[in-house]
Specification:
Elements: H1 6-33, H2 42-48, H3 63-88, H4 93-124
Helix pairs in contact: 1-4, 3-4
């Protein structure tokens, strides 16, 4: 990623990447508590994801496209966590609360990237 806004985006991506690793650890820990073996490779993880793998735009200075891709990923995660919250609401209180917490983080991330997109579009005009 290069250009005027690269440093701002890099800092936020690093922060959110660390947060996402924390999400993965929490989910893996819960899976183990329930007697499951969590996926351990990227290939295995991608089999379970309904959101797919995020790819960056070919033009590394196309910030608008970059942010829009991140927003699609955040919105997919939000939709998935909402589904899981509904699924576990009356079945498993601990898993339900876990997904509620993760959903809150994803909504915060979405709001951050929406703000970046709005700021970027205003600067572009």
């Amino acid at each position: 990623m290069k250009g005027v806004d690269a440093d701002t985006f890099k800092k936020e991506l690093l922060k959110q990447s660390i947060d996402e690793l924390g999400h993965a650890e929490k989910i893996a820990r819960r899976m183990i508590q329930l007697g499951y073996v969590p996926p351990s490779t990227l290939e295995e993880i991608l089999k379970f994801t309904t959101c797919g793998q995020l790819t960056m735009p070919e033009n590394v200075t196309d910030y608008e496209s970059f942010i829009e891709k991140i927003l699609r990923a955040e919105r997919c995660a939000i939709a998935k966590y909402n589904e899981l919250i509904k699924k576990y609401r009356f079945k498993d209180q601990i898993t339900y609360e876990l997904f509620e917490d993760l959903l809150e983080d994803e909504v915060d991330d979405e709001e951050t990237w929406e703000s970046f997109l709005e700021q970027y579009r205003r600067r572009k005009i």
